[in-house]
From TrEMBL:
Molecular function terms from GO: DNA topoisomerase type II (double strand cut, ATP-hydrolyzing) inhibitor activity; zinc ion binding
UniProt organism field: Komagataeibacter europaeus (Gluconacetobacter europaeus)
Compositional bias of kind Basic and acidic residues: 53-62
Protein name per UniProt: DNA gyrase inhibitor YacG
Region (Disordered) residue spans: 48-68
Subunit text: Interacts with GyrB.
A biological-process GO annotation: regulation of DNA-templated transcription
Listed cofactors: Zn(2+)
Function comment: Inhibits all the catalytic activities of DNA gyrase by preventing its interaction with DNA. Acts by binding directly to the C-terminal domain of GyrB, which probably disrupts DNA binding by the gyrase.
Length: 68
């Protein structure tokens, strides 16, 4: 048990991260992550909760159905 520190796996490829590139495993993966940032793939999650108010679909059934 002489491990200095256990780094989480690279978020890009899942390989063991390297201390000099953490949290990534390599410069390449760090660049990939940076590229995603710049391309706008990372979006700040907004508190946008879809409401179920649109589902006001009421089915009308006439009791006075013509039976004959
Ligand atoms: Zn990686």
């Amino acid at each position: 048990m002489a491990e200095p520190s256990t780094l989480p796996p690279c978020p890009i490829c899942g390989q063991p991260a390297q201390p000099q590139y953490r949290p990534f495993c390599s410069r390449r993966c760090a660049d990939v992550d940076l590229g995603r940032w710049f391309s706008g793939q990372y979006r700040v999650p907004s508190a946008e909760i879809p409401s179920a108010e649109d589902e006001k679909y009421t089915r009308r059934v006439d009791p006075d159905d013509e039976v004959g």
